[in-house]
């Protein structure tokens, strides 16, 4: 029944700054815009993440909701990368927030952390051949 995650959606304060972060720091591509049907005003921007997956960005956010570890609900978005050290180099090179440098986690995957201009926590992960994720993927996909 389910064949993947189509998109995650975020309300953003500064669309230009947010698009620049996802394109320049993370290497995503802006795919298209959708205007409000009633007015024609800017409404949504889609950022393409590969494999039929998108990040959907909505204009007009005005109320900040700072992340706290004790908050219930959304925690972070994880983006798969081929080379964690190259991903970290790009974060440093573009001046993006450097929350946690590359390290190997308990699941044997390599990870590092940043956040977007609106404070959305982003984990970048290089999946290890020894990880439980990869073992599961192989068991269901062959």
Structure commentary:
- The chain is of the alpha/beta class.
- It has two domains: 1-62, 2,3-Dihydroxybiphenyl 1,2-Dioxygenase, domain 1 (Roll), CATH 3.10.180.10; 76-142, 2,3-Dihydroxybiphenyl 1,2-Dioxygenase, domain 1, CATH 3.10.180.10.
- It has three helices and eight strands, in the order E-H-E-E-E-E-H-E-E-E-H.
- The strands form two sheets. It has a four-stranded mixed sheet, covered by helices on one side.
Quick structural gist:
The protein is α/β, with parallel strands linked by helices.
CATH architectural type of the largest domain: Roll
Name the overall outline: globular
Number of domains: 2
* CA-based gyration radius: 16 Å
How much helicity do the residues have? 10-25%
Q: Kindly state the mean pLDDT as a whole number?
A: 95
- Report the uncertain regions: none
Class inferred from helices and paired strands? alpha/beta
Strand segment tally: 8
* Oligomerization state: single chain
Percent of sequence in beta strands: 25-35%
Largest sheet: 4 strands, mixed
Write the layout of secondary structure elements.
Blueprint (H helix, E strand, L loop, with lengths): L6 E5 L3 H11 L3 E7 L6 E9 L2 E6 L18 E4 L3 H10 L6 E5 L5 E6 L5 E6 L5 H10 L1
Parallel strand pairs: 1-4, 5-8
Antiparallel strand pairs: 2-3, 3-4, 6-7, 7-8
Main traits of this protein?
4-stranded mixed beta sheet, 2,3-Dihydroxybiphenyl 1,2-Dioxygenase, domain 1, alpha/beta, 142 residues, 3 helices, globular
């Amino acid at each position: 029944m389910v064949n993947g995650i189509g998109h995650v959606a975020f309300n953003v304060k500064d669309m230009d700054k947010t698009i620049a972060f996802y394109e320049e720091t993370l290497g995503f591509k802006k795919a298209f815009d959708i205007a409000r049907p009633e007015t024609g005003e800017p409404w949504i921007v889609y950022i393409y993440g590969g494999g039929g997956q998108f990040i959907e960005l909505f204009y007009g956010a005005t109320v900040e909701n700072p992340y706290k570890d004790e908050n219930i609900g959304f925690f972070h978005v994880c983006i798969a990368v081929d080379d964690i050290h190259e991903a970290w180099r790009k974060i440093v090179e573009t001046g993006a927030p450097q929350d946690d440098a590359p390290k190997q986690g308990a699941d044997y995957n390599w990870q590092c952390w940043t956040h977007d201009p609106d404070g959305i926590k982003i984990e970048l992960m290089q999946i290890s051949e020894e990880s439980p994720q990869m073992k599961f993927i192989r068991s269901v996909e062959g």
